[in-house]
C-alpha cells in the first residue's frame, strides 16, 4: 500500500487543528483507561496519598454527575476548541428561537462513530451555541460507565456531560424556570455500527423512552440532524447477518458500548489511522415540538408524539439536505 505522507510545509494553523483533534480522539478512546491505570499505579508509589484523597473526594462527590454535573464555562470557552471546530470544520445552524421558560429534550441524529458534532456544538462554545440560543444551557448524555473512571469523570463533567440514565436527565428537566437542554444521541451505541459514509440510517422506530421522559416533565422536544457526522470515518463493512456484526452486537449488549472498526487517516500521513477525515459537519437544530406535561402517558399518547417527532425530523432532513450535498432522492431510513 502506498502511503500518502503529509507535506512538510503544512501551515501552523492546520498543525494546531490536528493536535486539538488528536487530543479529542485520545480523550474519547484512551483517556478513561489511562486514568484508571494512573489511579491504581499511584497507590503503589510514594504518591499513594493522591489516590487516597481522591477516593475520599469521590465518595462525597459521587452523586454530582446525576445532579447536573459540574460544567465549567471557562473550559468550554477555551481557544483550544476553535482548532477542533476548524479541523473539519463544524458549524451549528439555527432554524428557530428557543423559549428560555421551557426545558428541552434534544434528539441528536445520527450518532456517528464518535459523536463529534454533538460534543463540539453542545459541550463547547466554539460554534456559537450561547449566542444562537441565549439563556439555554446544554448537557450531553453519556454512558454511565464512563463516570466510574477516576479523574476522567471530573474531566467530562467539566464539559457538561452527564450520565445517560433517567434520573440524571430528570433532575435537569424538572427544574423550574426552564432553560435546560438535555441532548440525547437517541440511536446510542448500536447506531454507531451503522455509521458508514453515505448512509442515513437512524435507529428511532422503537425508541420512545426520550418521548416519555419529555411528556412526564412537559419538556419540549427538539430534533437535530448533523449532516456529515457519518462522513468523517470509514468503517469495516459489517452488514446484518455477518459474523463481525454478530460479535459487535453481542459485545455491545454485554459491555454497553459498541466497538465499530473505524479508520480514516493518520497524524503525519493520509492513508490510514484513527484521526478523522477533514469533512464538514453541519448540525441543524430544528423547530421545537411543544409538549404538554402528562405524568402518565398512555401507549397511544406516546405513539402519537413519537410519530410527530419522526415526521419533524424527516422534514428537517428533507428541508436542508440540498444545502449539504445530499442527493435529492436520498431519504432518512428509520430503523
From TrEMBL:
It is an enzyme of class 2 (transferase). GO terms for molecular function: 2-acylglycerol O-acyltransferase activity; diacylglycerol O-acyltransferase activity. GO terms for biological process: diacylglycerol biosynthetic process; triglyceride biosynthetic process. The keyword Lipid biosynthesis applies. Its EC number is 2.3.1.-. It is found in: Endoplasmic reticulum membrane. Keywords: Acyltransferase, Endoplasmic reticulum, Lipid biosynthesis, Lipid metabolism, Membrane, Transferase, Transmembrane, Transmembrane helix. It is a multi-pass membrane protein. GO terms for cellular component: endoplasmic reticulum membrane. It holds the Pfam family DAGAT. InterPro entries: DAGAT. It comes from the Eukaryota. The keyword Cell membrane does not apply. Signal peptide: none annotated. The chain crosses the membrane at residues 21-41. Its main location: endoplasmic reticulum. Belongs to the diacylglycerol acyltransferase family. This is Acyltransferase.
Amino acid at each position: 500500500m502506498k502511503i500518502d505522507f503529509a507535506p512538510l510545509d503544512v501551515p501552523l494553523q492546520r498543525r494546531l487543528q490536528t493536535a486539538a483533534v488528536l487530543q479529542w480522539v485520545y480523550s474519547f478512546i484512551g483517556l478513561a483507561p489511562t486514568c484508571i491505570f494512573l489511579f491504581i499505579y499511584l497507590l503503589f508509589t510514594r504518591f499513594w496519598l493522591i489516590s487516597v484523597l481522591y477516593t475520599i473526594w469521590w465518595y462525597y462527590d459521587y452523586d454530582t454527575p446525576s445532579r447536573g454535573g459540574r460544567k465549567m464555562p471557562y473550559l468550554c470557552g477555551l481557544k483550544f476548541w476553535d482548532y477542533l471546530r476548524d479541523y473539519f470544520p463544524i458549524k451549528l445552524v439555527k432554524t428557530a428561537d428557543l423559549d428560555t421558560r421551557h426545558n428541552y429534550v434534544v434528539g441528536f441524529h445520527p450518532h456517528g462513530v464518535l459523536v463529534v458534532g454533538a460534543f463540539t456544538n453542545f459541550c463547547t462554545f466554539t460554534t456559537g451555541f450561547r449566542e444562537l440560543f441565549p439563556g439555554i444551557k446544554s448537557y450531553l448524555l453519556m454512558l454511565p460507565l464512563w463516570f466510574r473512571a477516576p479523574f476522567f469523570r471530573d474531566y467530562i463533567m467539566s464539559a457538561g456531560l452527564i450520565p445517560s440514565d433517567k434520573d440524571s436527565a430528570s433532575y435537569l428537566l424538572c427544574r423550574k424556570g426552564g432553560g435546560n437542554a438535555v441532548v440525547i444521541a437517541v440511536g446510542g451505541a448500536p447506531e454507531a455500527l451503522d455509521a458508514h459514509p453515505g448512509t442515513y440510517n437512524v435507529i428511532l422506530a422503537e425508541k420512545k423512552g426520550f418521548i416519555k421522559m419529555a411528556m412526564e416533565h412537559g419538556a419540549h422536544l427538539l430534533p437535530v440532524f448533523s449532516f456529515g457526522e457519518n462522513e468523517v470515518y470509514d468503517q469495516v463493512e459489517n452488514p446484518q447477518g455477518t459474523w463481525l456484526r454478530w460479535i459487535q452486537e453481542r459485545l455491545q449488549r454485554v459491555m454497553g458500548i459498541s466497538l465499530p472498526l473505524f479508520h480514516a487517516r493518520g497524524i503525519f500521513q493520509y492513508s490510514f489511522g484513527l484521526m478523522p477525515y477533514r469533512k464538514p459537519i453541519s448540525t441543524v437544530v430544528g423547530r421545537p415540538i411543544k409538549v404538554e406535561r402528562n405524568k402518565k402517558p398512555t401507549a397511544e399518547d406516546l405513539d402519537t408524539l413519537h410519530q410527530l417527532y419522526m415526521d419533524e425530523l424527516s422534514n428537517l432532513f428533507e428541508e436542508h439536505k440540498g444545502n449539504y450535498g445530499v442527493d435529492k432522492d436520498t431519504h432518512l431510513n428509520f430503523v
